[in-house]
Write a structure and sequence with these properties.
about 300 residues, Arc Repressor Mutant, subunit A, D-Maltodextrin-Binding Protein, domain 2, seven-stranded mixed β-sheet, 10 helices, about 45% helix
């Protein structure tokens, strides 16, 4: 019969590619890992690994055993999280989807709070756009998702998803400092015509909000540069290649770019989306941490 401890060691070797790396990940010695592998091979009655240069390659039997170990580990982790839920503890996996611009000011500080208060949580984060992340929230592949909503175009969310607002930013026009529209006074949106634009990819909330906002003011933006990251967009603006509408806060200190108020005023709100109903302890802890980050006040 396979021992769970030995299967766990094999899975670590498979994931890290060598005895040494697996030992470091498991906080044991390399000889201890090698010994566990040899015992597991005796139990299996066949070779599970083959040395290849400085690394390790799994045999077909080794791949089967390693995948079984991963499946067992996933089952144990899920069981621990469900039992902890009954006790009201925040433990186990926490899967987060986030906008690129929200990681630095919101997600990272919230994760620091969680690491201190809930050390048994195991958070993982993926960046992307709501159009990609919200479906994963519905299928329970993610537990919380940070989304954006413009004042001119609220976020498009499925019926069983709810959003708590976190922070609201002014949306401004980003141009090169020498641009004719650069200056302290608000620029009417209908005057921003005949420009090359940079924008997030079509289908994203940011792209659709920007394009629809301009169309309402009689301007059809010509998007030449499709870039999902605001800071990368600013490199194009600073080079005089494009203009764009962008939330002020994420790009405030970017050199070589002038941020001009627009009229009528626009805002973008970042919120945290979760499935409706009472939240399990892990996502509830993340929501609380995010609310604390934006308010600066400890939450119970």
């Amino acid at each position: 019969m396979f021992g769970w401890d030995r299967l766990r060691v094999l899975a670590a070797v498979a994931d890290h590619g060598s005895i040494t790396a697996a030992a470091a990940a498991l906080h044991v010695t390399s000889p201890a890992v090698s010994q566990q592998i040899r015992k597991l091979e005796r139990e299996a009655g066949c070779a599970l690994v083959v040395r290849e240069g400085r690394g390790i390659r799994l045999t077909p039997a080794g791949h089967i055993a390693a995948q079984a170990a991963r499946d067992v580990d996933r089952t144990i982790t899920t069981a621990e999280a469900e039992v902890a839920t009954l006790r009201g503890e925040a433990v186990g996996p926490l899967r987060i989807g986030a906008l690129n611009s929200s990681v630095g000011p919101l997600v990272a500080p919230a994760l620091r709070l969680l690491a201190r208060r809930h050390p048994r949580l195991v958070p993982r984060a993926w960046t992307g756009e709501a159009v990609d992340l919200i479906p994963k929230l519905e299928t329970r592949d993610l537990d919380v998702v940070l989304v954006e909503s413009w004042s001119t175009m609220p976020a498009r969310l499925p019926p069983k998803v709810t959003v708590r607002p976190l922070v609201t930013h002014e949306v401004v026009l980003a141009v090169q400092p020498g641009h004719p529209l650069a200056g302290p006074d608000p620029v009417p949106l209908h005057r921003i015509e005949g420009e090359a634009w940079t924008a997030c990819r079509p289908g994203t909330d940011n792209h659709e909000a920007q394009i629809q906002t301009m169309r309402r003011h009689g301007v059809e933006p010509t998007v030449r540069y499709v870039v999902d990251d605001f800071l990368t967009q600013m490199t194009l603006v600073a080079a005089g290649l494009a203009v764009t509408l962008v939330p002020r806060d994420p790009v405030e200190s970017f050199p070589g770019v002038a941020l001009v108020p627009v009229a009528p005023a626009l805002t973008r709100t970042i919120g945290v989306a979760t499935r409706q109903g009472e939240l399990p302890p892990a996502p509830a802890a993340m929501v609380d941490a995010l609310l604390e980050v934006v308010s600066g006040e400890p939450r119970p």
